[in-house]
Amino acid sequence: MTTTLKVTGMSCGHCVGAVRRALESVPGVKVETVEIGAATVTYDPAATAREALVDAIEDAGYEVKDD
Question: Against a cut of 0.85, is the pTM above it?
Answer without folding.
Answer: yes
